[in-house]
Amino acid sequence: MNQENKKHMKKMHFNNSKLFTLICTILGFSMLIGCEKQDIFGENYDIDFPVPAVSAVSSKSALIGSTIILTGTNLDKVTSVKVGAENAEGKIVEKTSTSLKLQLPRIFSKGAFTVSNVYKQATTSSVTIDPIFPDVEITNYPTVIDRGQVFLIGGSNVDLIQEVMIGETKVRLDPTSQTEKQGIVNTQGVILSGDQTVIKVSKAYGKVINGISGAIAVQNYDPNAVYVAEQPIVIWDFEDGKNPFVNADILPISGINVSKLPKLRDQNYLTVKTDKADGWNKAIGFLTSTNPINLSKFHDPHLTFWINTNGSQGYFQLELQMGGVKSGGHFTPASSSSETDNYNFEKTNGWELRSISLKNFNWENWGSGKLKFNPQGIIESIALGYKQGNGKGFFELNIDQVQITDGPIKPVFTAFNFENNVNPYSGSAKSGINLSNIPSVSGERYLTVKVDNALSWNWTGDIYAGGPINLVNLKNPYISFWVNTNGKSGFFQIETTQNETKWGAGIDDANYLIKTNGWKRMNFSLKALGWGNWGGTSKALDMKGVLDYIKIGFSTGNASGVNYEVNIDDIVISDGAMY
């Protein structure tokens, strides 16, 4: 290569190097710009965002929980109003640019108003407000206190109580578990040495009326004692026909009765299905309820629901807020009532029951701390977050009867549900499947037994379900069923044998007659039923023994000269009541 060509090559190399350096500089500068921290909306901008300000209040003092009017400027974009020295949150009712109607919180101290808006602009007013507290009146004290357990006090404005004295011990009340009519007092750590004690409301907002109880019995807590379960609190039963499901990252098919399955209860259930589910990567959607759930009278709160995957699989995770802490968790063999649940609900056998202890659930920290579940507290919100989880393939999940129940729902022996369309009745009365032509309550079918112009105490016939029915592992054995007398008169009796002794009981030994104008779930503790010896030498029915069978005898009882009718469904022996 000659000298001239070498110079030319060097020049080209030099020019290319400068071009390469320039490109790298531009790219580096671009990357630097691209990696700069993005400003949060309303911060570090030259834009003059409107600043809200309160200049006047309609009253210098007001009753807690009442509404007041704030006047000022730029109030139409306000999203939060905090009241008093402790910054208690008020509720915005209405707002314009110059006026804001505010519902005051139940508890706040004298102080100013701090308003903030969507642009993250906030100011504190120079005007202040004084709270007016109503009287606190106690109308109900407990008759007995179990050592180490909680008890309730009732009345009006009970949420204003801060502290009570049990004997000589001060106990602060948890504000998250109080309502206007009811307060929960926890005796854990309180030494109750005598057989009696006295409760005194020692600190409250406002004047206290009837703040000292009479003498109250004190006893040791018996964890094995049988309690009477509270009625369940229904979160979703979908009977309003509205679809509450909210989509997330994908657009599933969702709606009421979309899968056209045999119904579980009443008329409606919710369907969610999709072929776009992607493990843990994409959220399918949510069911959310923000209606407060007061557990103050519950003994053992459980989340109970029924699911049906219709031959596929599905999943959701549980999220719950209590005491301002939002936490969540998953359904696994350790936390669910089904050992097959492992971050996924596998293919179900029709409708399947889940009944989950909220007290023993494995709550995780999902951003605001790990929840310490209070079994007598208030659930502020509950959500089911739909994801595929560990599942694979087509996603389908049908759900119904989402409830908080007092204790687990544990069916042990299903005597009859009549879904096989076979009439098991043997006797002289008119009988048949769906003979009354009333809407069913559970599934599609029920049994009807009726007699026109009935004579009293006529055993018309019966239905028989053979055992054995082993009660040995049942803590609280129940018999339950759905009953509808269709506005007429009804009655029936229960029969079984054990150890060659026949036992019988009526479902209402006070009146020997029942009457309903719709379906009613009836639950009877086998221990509390008035069993009579109908033949044999045993002195009592053994509640840890084995029942040979269950027979429902359609006796007319005290129904005389009237039309007798009983529609019955879902006859079940269970550990605890069924709902």
UniProtKB/TrEMBL annotation:
Stretches assigned to the IPT/TIG domain: 52-125
Pfam families documented for this protein: TIG (PF01833)
Domain of life: Bacteria
Protein name from the UniProt record: IPT/TIG domain-containing protein
Organism: Lacihabitans soyangensis
